[in-house]
Amino acid sequence: MKAEGATRNGDLDPWGVPPAVAARLKKLGLHAPAELVLHLPLRYEDETRLTPIREVPLGPSVLVEGTIADAQVQYRGRRMLVCQVEDGSGTLVMRFLNFYPSQVKAYAPGARVRLFGEARLGLFGPEMVHPRVRVLRGETPLPETLTPVYPTTAGLSQDALRRLVERALAEFPLTESLPAELRARLKLPGFRESVLHLHNPPPKAKLELLEGRSHPAWRRIKFDELLAQQLSMRLHYQRRRARAAPALPPHHGLTRALLDRLLFPLTRAQRRAYGEISRDLSESHPMQRLLQGDVGSGKTIVAALAALQAAENGCQCAIMAPTEILAEQHHLKFSAWFAPLDVPIAWIAGGLRKKEREAALKRVASGEATVAIGTHALFQEEVKFRNLGLAIIDEQHRFGVHQRLALRQKGDSPHQLMMSATPIPRTLSMSYYADLDVSVIDEMPPGRTPVTTKLIADSRRDEVIARVRDACVAGRQAYWVCPLIEDSEALQLKTALATFDTVRQTFPDLRVGLVHGRLPSEEKAAVMGRFKAGEIQLLVATTVIEVGVDVPNASLMVIEHAERMGLAQLHQLRGRVGRGAEASACILMYANPLSDAARERLKIIFENSDGFEVARRDLMLRGPGEFLGARQSGVPLLRFADLEADRDLLEAAREVAAQILERHPEAARAHLERWLGERHRLLRV
Ligand code: ADP
Ligand code: MG
To answer: Does residue 550's CB lie within 6 angstroms of at least one atom of ligand 1?
Structure first.
């Protein structure tokens, strides 16, 4: 029996492609013959013109035709095949350091050959080392188009790939998928015309435009790719809207009661965000909304209001955070808010004792607990809800698509609210996140003083130490963030312990605490509690405090080896200070010498306090692949288009996607099939 993938419509089987070749094609992302149409060249070689040997330039590749006058296997330290080729205008040497007996036979005197390669100056005139050689038999016209050079992989020759692409171009109809009026409006060339031009450009084609991917034919391809992405996202969106979820309209009982007790009024941005969420919850299909707001913008209270709206309708709510510290903090905060309102909360995390855990699970399953707060432990199978109406996921970018899917399956189709302090640059939210609705809190609560960022080489450690002491003596608190050590939790722990020791020796007069990822959860919670209460003045921490930790009296942060950290991480860490009325500072210590990339990152974080700007620069530095992290699994990445550089095309694609789906559903389907094959059916979250 064949594997499921092998019988799939469009597999390479019908072409009789040998398994070894098929495997290499798959490496290139090519699973079906039709996909070869969109396997586009990287560059081109000009084999349309012959260059007389006398005029062969040194350097650029040229095509030469002549007769073999002499061929010898020579020994000059190693075996080599040396042939003289004549064309009436001059003689050229071709030299092979590796060769097969079959070559010796084929390149015998008298044979007519065509060579393509770069010439260099040898002892006896121009010489080509390992040119591409074709032995001519009878009439062999020159190609009429430039020769494409494709991205390939070991074991798959350009010739083989070219033949496959040619076959695909001949066999598939290359139908136009865009309505004519649209193409005219966007001034885009036809699909067939564009694809043929890119694979086989005429000799006079503008190579800079083609190889620089700015030719109109390239714009057409990039537009098509972006359009496919938009269509796919939009279809998801529509499919989700077609599913049913419990309608949870606001009753203004619990939410009003919470707002009345709150010590601060909501900012306008918070009210607007809650308004949008509230409206979504009232509808009978699942919300999938991303609440975005820079670190410290006050997302938690908005989440609490959403949870209460679900509770007003007798539905349960799950609140999940990526780290235990953050989950614990939410637990404390929500408990303080919800206890007076008689909304019971269950706490579910990894470190619970069996009995506590079982009790919590029971309260969630029976519906006795209205709200469940925890870490990814909430995803686990034993966690059963009586009627889950809303799932809130904090710091959503830390969770993978699969985990979110697992949570969704716990309810019929609960509403989902995702929160993120890693702002998504506009081009990304227009593309990879286009299936989500987004609310943005673009305003900080009043009374914050901006954080000053300082860059200090670690040779000036003494100054940093003086500042930390001054701040603590003045009654404020500080974080001392340990250097990040990649991939090794054990090393990280060692560094944290070592840093803690040094810091304690440096500040014998201060109350110093330590928190790191390996600490048992109760201890972690206890340390954080003491820091929050002001008992600990200086907290030595690993990056576990990166997300969500909220201690307003902490106004100074020192980050060691900031050059090792990513931009998003630095911005998150810095967001831990500047939460109170006190002027705050973040000191980034770095060790020289800095790599160019590290220098660039430090410069960006130093110059920008706005998270959106930091994120945009981050995207430019790293490209969407890394930026997307977990989300990219399941979401096809763009191959040709560049979100920032092709922003105009992205905007255009977004604009027309809705229109095409509505007025030309057949065209939309054909377009998706061409670009995503079956992949678009896999995208479900
Ligand atoms: P984040 O968006 O990073 O999750 P939080 O929800 O933790 O931010 O809020 C940061 C701090 O701001 C908390 O101490 C919170 O109590 C406070 N806060 C939130 N909203 C307001 C507001 N409207 N006015 C004053 N303080 C607020
Ligand atoms: Mg938060």
So the answer is: yes
Q: 199-231 pLDDT, tens per residue?
A: 999 999 888 899 999 999 999 999 999 999 899
Q: Would residue 222 count as lying in a domain?
A: no
Q: Work out whether strand 112-122 and strand 61-75 pair parallel, antiparallel, or are unpaired.
A: antiparallel
Domain residues for the domain of 155 are 19-44+151-214
What's the pTM value of the predicted model, to 2 decimals? 0.73
Ligand 1 within 6 A of CB of 295: yes
Token pair recorded at residue 423: 């702002």
**Of the residues 214, 230, 245, the one at which a domain ends:** 214
Q: What does the DSSP 8-state code read for residue 292?
A: E
CATH no. for residue 436?
3.40.50.300
Torsion region of 125: left, alpha or beta (phi above 0 gives left; psi -120 to 50 gives alpha): left
pLDDT by residue (tens digit) across 392-448? 998 766 665 555 556 656 666 899 999 987 777 778 878 877 878 889 999 988 877
Do 271 and 197 lie in one domain? The reply is: no
Query: At residue 614, what is the residue type?
Result: V
The Cα–Cα gap between 518 and 345 comes to: 26
Asked if residue 385 lies in contact with residue 374, where contact means CB atoms within 8 angstroms, the answer is no
Give how many domains the chain has, as a whole number: 4
Q: Which of 198, 214, 230 is the last residue of a domain?
A: 214
Q: From the CA of 299, how far away is ligand 2's center (Å)?
A: 6
Q: How far is the CA of 444 from the centre of ligand 1 (A)?
A: 8
Tell me the three-class secondary structure of 68-95, residue by residue: EEEEEEEECCCEEEEEEEECCCCEEEEE
Q: Atom 4, ligand 1: which residue's CA is nearest? A: 299
Residue 367 shares a structural domain with residue 381: yes
Burial class (CB in 10 A: 0-12, 13-18, 19+), 112: middle
Q: Please tell me whether residues 300 and 383 are part of one structural domain.
A: yes
**Is residue 62 located within the same domain as residue 37?**
no
Rounded Cα distance between 461 and 594, Å, is 17
Burial 464-501 (b: 16+ CB within 10 A, else e): beebbbebbeeebbbbbbbbbbeeeeeebbebbeebbe
506, 533 Cβ separation under 8 angstroms: no
Q: Is residue 63 situated within a structural domain?
A: yes
Q: Which two tokens stand for residue 243?
A: 């599913």
Query: Three-class SS string for 181-247?
Result: HHHHHHCCCCHHHHHHHHHCCCCCCCHHHHHCCCCHHHHHHHHHHHHHHHHHHHHHHHHHHHCCCCC
Q: Whose CA is nearest to atom 26 of ligand 1?
A: 445
CA distance 45 to 60: 10
